[in-house]
Amino acid sequence: MKNISKSLREKILTLTEEYYKETFKNSIIPGKNQIPVSGRVFDQHELYNLVDSSLDFWLTEGRYNDEFEKELSKFVNVNFTATVNSGSSANLLAFSALTSPFLGKRAIKKGDEVICAATSFPTTLNPVIQNGCVPVLLDVSIPEYNIPFRSIKKNITAKTKAIFLAHTLGNPYEVKELAEFCKKEEIWLIEDCCDALGALYDGKKVGSFGDLSTLSFYPAHQITCGEGGAVLTNSAILNKAVRSFRDWGRDCWCAPGNENTCGIRFNWKLGDLPRGYDHKYIYSHIGYNMKMTDMQASIGLAQLGKIKRFVKKRNENHTLLTEKFKAFEKYFILPKATLNSNPSWFGFVLTVKKSAPFTRGELIKYLEEYKVASRFLFAGEISKQPAYKNIKFKKPVSLKNSKLVMNNTFWIGCYPAINKYIIQYIVKVFNDFLRQYEN
Ligand SMILES: Cc1ncc(COP(=O)(O)O)c(C=O)c1O
């Protein structure tokens, strides 16, 4: 870079940091501002990286993305990470990779059965449907909101080819036992870690147990790129399949801007193509284009540098909320971490007890009035959603807890912008609401 451009760039970046300090004030005033369930938490470093990357004007994946993928692999402790444009894309790619002809006899086929939670997030379930497989919905336990391992084991049949489950709201399921079982039975396991980056099970990061795992970097999540996601795996062959599906289905694995990485670009003989057909334009999968831009990756990299702090703050807030809500246990089922786990709490989840003298709807309305935002546990019992009316599901067990989740469960925020004063306010709002039912 010429000296003049270098000094201009330095000036722009210094001004960017000043701009951040002048412009962004992240504090929430309880009672005045709504207390969100989640949101982006950032400082001048994210803005610096974003502007720095924009000045490269490389636009597609480049130096920041290389670094982000490397650091994600290191953090979760996996061999390979492929960044993508959303968590939903990550889920679609992870499941699609299991249909790859690269996997020979073990490739997933139309009609194969896949175990999913009855309270799944839609895009954890959709890839199963989109690939022509049959979702087998199992009930979750309350207050963990995951399917117990013993229930999964009991419901495996000869048709079960994969298990695709999210660590609900950052609370891990019994993933070590499940991964060992899946390996023995030759069943694929995909961990949807979109809400759980940084959570541990048996002292190891979630996302490092399954054949594949996924992340989301939408602003609600532990770290954000605005939009974005990633697929992680320890398997070189699955990584190759994921990248092929992500990059138009191509067989070639050159990074953007590179060519002839394989050294035999014009000497391949694949499919019914003539020998020497340009490898850049040979397709081994029915693919998509789901790549992330370098600008998104630059934000993600700055965010990843803060992940330990973010997870610690989420969990501290969760602990404080749990302590305070013990006083309301008469009305709510409080959340519980899975045995042998350290969650990375995504939210503080509550189920209104059936015996409570009020409904979830009445409470939520009150919370809205006092500017405490809340969310339902995603789609509830998902097969009840209009989009799934004509989808063929298998439901081998009663879904009574999932029904309770649909009717009585909700969650409030514990993300890092929330502090003890905000929690004090939240507790006061709940207390004021509940006082009318005390006798
Ligand atoms: C469990 C789970 N999986 C997948 C996704 C999809 O991620 P994205 O919004 O990045 O597409 C979400 C979104 O919040 C989620 O909560």
Automatic annotation (TrEMBL):
The keyword Nuclease does not apply. Pfam families: DegT_DnrJ_EryC1. It comes from the Bacteria. InterPro entries: DegT/StrS_aminotransferase (IPR000653), PyrdxlP-dep_Trfase (IPR015424), PyrdxlP-dep_Trfase_major (IPR015421), PyrdxlP-dep_Trfase_small (IPR015422). Its cofactor is pyridoxal 5'-phosphate. GO terms for molecular function: pyridoxal phosphate binding; transaminase activity. One of its GO terms (biological process) is polysaccharide biosynthetic process. Keywords: Pyridoxal phosphate. Belongs to the DegT/DnrJ/EryC1 family. This is Lipopolysaccharide biosynthesis protein RfbH. It comes from candidate division WWE3 bacterium RIFCSPLOWO2_12_FULL_36_10.
